[in-house]
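Researcher: Before we compare anything, I want clean individual predictions. No alignment, no superposition, just each chain on its own. First chain goes here; please echo the sequence and then give the C-alpha cells.
Model: Echoing the first chain and its structure:
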Amino acid sequence: MPGSAVQVRSPLPFAGRLDGVLGAVAMAKNAHVISAEEAAALVKPGDWLDFGACFNQPDVFDRALAARKDTLRDVRIRNCLSMKPRAFLEQDPEGAHFACYNWHFSGYDRRKHDQGLVNYLPCHLGEIPDYYRRFIPRTDIAVLRAAPMDAEGYFNLGPVNVWHPAIIETAKTLIIETLPDMPRVVGTHVRVHRSQVDYVIEGDDVPTPELPNAEASEVGRAVAALIAEQIEDGSCLQVGIGGMPNAVTALLQQSSVRDLGIHTEMLNEGLVELYLSGRISGARKAFDQGLVTYSFALGSRRLYDTLRDNDDFIVRPVDETNMPDIIARNDRAVAINNTTQIDLQGQAASESDGHRHISGTGGQAQFVRGAYASKGGKSFICLASTYERKGVRKSRIVLNLTAGNIVTTARSDQMYVVTEYGIANLKGLSVAERARAIIGLAHPDYREDLSREARDHGLVPRHFL
C-alpha cells in the first residue's frame, strides 16, 4: 500500500521530560474523563493555554472557560485560524480577563484584532515547532480536539498536524476534547496515545467545520492560465489559498500534464479534486513517493471524506513540510501563492494592509525559497493588477508599498510574478530591468505613471536601454 512507509508516532513523546520511572508511570496511566467545567477549573490566573489551530481548537472547553472569566485574569491563549467565534473572546469584549496570541488570522481573527483583542505572532509557519521547543517558556495547559480513542488507545488529531506534536511534547497538562466527526487520517505524529493525555472531555457531536471553495474571477482564470502553461510533467505542487491557485488546479485537470506530485502546507479543495481526477501519482517525488504530503487541510465534506483513512495521503507537522531544504528535495517543486501588493523592486506584501494585519506570513516565504532551490523548481507570486475600494479602482503594482505594509516575499527571493497581463521572471534582472518587467504586468491605465515614477526616483535611469 502507498502508506506502508508512514511512521506512527511513538506513544512516549516526552523526550527530555520523562525518563526512567516517570516514563513508566506515563505509559501506565489512563486519561481521566472529566467535564468541561472541571477542565476549565484547572486554569489559574496567569496561565498560558494553547488551543492549537483550525478545527482542532476546542469548543466545549472554550465555553466553560469563558463562563469562568470573572474568576480569572491574565490568562493568555495561543491559537491559529479560528473557524468559528471563540467564546473566550466573545464573552470578554474588553480583554480584561483573556489575551489571545495568534499565529495566522482567519477572517474572524482579523475582526477581533481590529477590536484590539488578538495579537499576531510573527513567524514562518514551518519554524513554529522549534519555537515551542526552544523559545516559548511554557504552556501550562493545551486543549486539542481529536477523534475519540480507538481500540488501540489512540486519539487522532485529524487532518491538522501543524505544530501539535510540539505542543503535546512541551505542555504541562494535555486535555483532549473529542469530536466524533473528526476524520481519522494517516500521518506522522497524528495519533496521540492515551498515555500522553491527562484529561479527556466529551465534545459536541457536530460536523467538522468546512471552508467554502474560493471561486476564481475572470482575472483569476487568466492568471491561472499563464501559470498552468509553466507546469511540467512530474512537477511537485504547493498551492496556497484563494481563487487563483484553485483555478490553476482546475486547468491542470484539463491539461496533458502527467505524473504530478503534491507537497504542500495547506491541502485545499483544488488539490484534492486534482487527485480525484487521476492527475496525481507522486511517482517522481524524492520522498513520500506515491503519497500526497500536507500539513493541514481545510475544505468541504468531500475533501474530509477523501482523507478519511486514506493511505494515499500523509499529514506531517510543518517542520516536515515547510522547511526550504525539505521542499527542495523534490525536483520541479512548484509554489503558487497570492499577494495583495507588489512594488517595482519586486517586494510582495501578502499579509497586511498598512499597519492593519490581515493574515500572516504563513509558509509563503519558505515555499518561495524551497521551490527556487529545487532542481527545475519554480515559484509563482500571483495577483490581480487592480482592486476596487469604495468605488475607486487602484493599482496593486506600486512604486512604494503602502506605509506600514509587511514584506512577505523579499525582492531577492522573487522569481515569477504573474498578473492577468503577463508573467515575468525577475531572477537575474537588475533593479531597472525588473521595474520595467513589473510595470509591464500592471493595468495599462497605470503604466505611464509607474514609468514616470520609476524614472523620477532613479529606479530606471533616463538613458537605460
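Researcher: Okay. Second chain, same rules.
Model: Second chain and its structure:
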Amino acid sequence: MSAYEALARVYDALTEDVGYERRADYLEKLFKRSQIPVHTVLDLACGTGEMTAILTERGYELIAVDASPDMLSQAREKAAELTGEPPVFLNQSMPALDLYGTVDAAVCCLDSLNYLTSPKDVQKTFQRLHLFISPGGLLVFDINSIEKLAALDGQVFLDETEDVYCVWRTEYEKRSRLCSYWMDIFTRRPDGGWDRSGEEHRQRGYSVDELKAWLMDAGFTRVRTFGDCRMAAPKEKEQRIYFSAIRGK
C-alpha cells in the first residue's frame, strides 16, 4: 500500500492535538516579516488541507500542493465547505513544484520537509520555491530536529479514537539520520468489525547549518530559526524548529 493511502482517511482524527489554529496564528506573525504584503500563499505538502482551510477562511488565496492523491482528495472535500476564495489544488512532489505564477509567501508545515530523504531533493525544493515566491516574499517551514528523530529510536506509540486504532513503531539509523515509521491502522466498519492496513513512512534529519546553507545557495536571504511557535531562537535539543527566509530580489 502506498504511503498515506490508508492514513489519509483517518489523519484528521489522529491529529486533533496538533493545534492548527495556534500554528496559523504563528504563521501570520511571521508573515509580517515579509518585505511585501502577503495575500497569496502556497501550502506545500498540504496533506488533508487543514492549514489550507484555516488560511483561506482568514482571507488568503491558497495554492495547495501535495504528492499524495489520497491526501488531496480529503483536502478538496474539506475545501468544499469554505467561504473564502476556493483554493487551487495541485498533485505535485516538492522537488517538482511547478506553479502558474508567483505567490507572496509559501509555508510547509508539520515536518513535511523531513519526508524528503535525499539532500538533493531538499535543495531542488528550495530552488523551486525561490522561483515561485515573489521577490521580497516569505518562506516558512518547520522540521523535526535530529535530536527528536534520534530519540524516537525503538519507541512504540498508540493513537486511538472510537473508530480508529493506530499503532506505530520507529527505528532510527544514526549514520544516515533516517527514521522509519511502521504503522498498523485499524478502522471500524459499519458492521462493527475492523479493517487493518499498514504503511511505512521515513523521515531524514537535517541540521540547521545544512538547511541555512541550502536556502542561501538557492537565493534566500535573512534566514532565521525559531523554537516551536516562538519568536525566540531554538533552545538546545529543540524538538521542532521553524525557519523563515526572504526570497532575494
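Researcher: What stands out in the second chain?
Model: Helices lie at 7-14, 20-31, 50-57, 69-79, 119-132, 146-151, 208-217. Additionally, The chain has a mean pLDDT of 92.
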